[in-house]
Amino acid sequence: MDKNLLRQIGIPIMAILIFLLFWEWIVWFNNWPNYKMASPSDLVPAFWKFRWLFLEYGWQTLWRTIAGLMLAVFFGVLIGMIMGFSRTMREGLYPLLVGFNAIPKATVVPVIALMFVGQDNFNTVLMAFMISFFPIAVSVSLGLSTLEPEYRDILRSLGASQFTIFRKIALPKTLPEFFGALKVAVTLAFIGTNLVEIIQPHGKGLGFLFDSGKISADYPLMFAVLIALAFLGIMLYYIVVLLERTFAGWAERSP
User: Could you tell me the pTM of the whole model?
Assistant: First the structure.
């Protein structure tokens, strides 16, 4: 196996194991009962007991998150391109985007629930989209608006079309910023999905399972749900990393 690949796999796994061991130790050292702080060893029985619910509800949370993230990518790139190529649109839309992003999304959940009563999947996907849209739009706009005019002028003097300039210069210039924002958007999308599932239980997702554990005072189940969410987030994050290395690997610099 390639040493670099082994390092990229081994170091994250080692870091996770160290974190779990430290978590187990600190619970044991403080002699905390599992209704105060569940340890990793308390989570295994919870995972096994509710294994079918974790599979069913985990899938519900995952597909809703991916759907919201895909919408965020589409509309984020579209709005980012509009702002990146037009200074007037950038100056007009930026205050609106910043103001909307500053609104606590927990306060928006009841509004969405009242506007779209009974639309469980739609409400959850919409919140995942709303909370992950901003960093993508801003990164694409920043990448395009900071494009060096010298490169653009050279290609124009050679008779290149606007599409050619975008494909040859603007797109490669924007890709690193886009994937950087997409890594952030992945985690934000999960936050949006579970915010709706917990505050206004819609359908059957991991947020609903977490809320069920809270109601029944099943703290190992609550912590198990948090670990399951972290696992799904890490999984999607590394999918984005794989896509980044495929399409923008040239931008990575070795330390």
Answer: 0.87
User: With DSSP H G I counted as helix, E B as strand and the rest as coil, what are the percentages for the chain, rounded to 5?
Assistant: 85, 0, 15
Decide if 124 contacts 57 (C-beta within 8 A).
no
**CB 113, CB 123: distance < 8 Å:** yes
Domain formed by 44-251, architecture: Orthogonal Bundle (1.10)
Q: What is the pLDDT of residues 114-126, one digit of tens each?
A: 888 778 888 899 9
pLDDT tens digits for 134-150? 999 999 888 887 777 77
State the burial class of residue 37 (Cβ atoms within 10 Å of its Cβ: 0-12, 13-18, 19+). middle
128 contacts 69 by C-beta, under 8 angstroms: yes
Spatial separation of the C-alpha atoms in residues 192 and 55, rounded to whole Å: 20
Which has the closest alpha carbon to 204: 120, 128, 132, 101? 120
Q: Where are the domains of the chain?
A: 1-31, 44-251
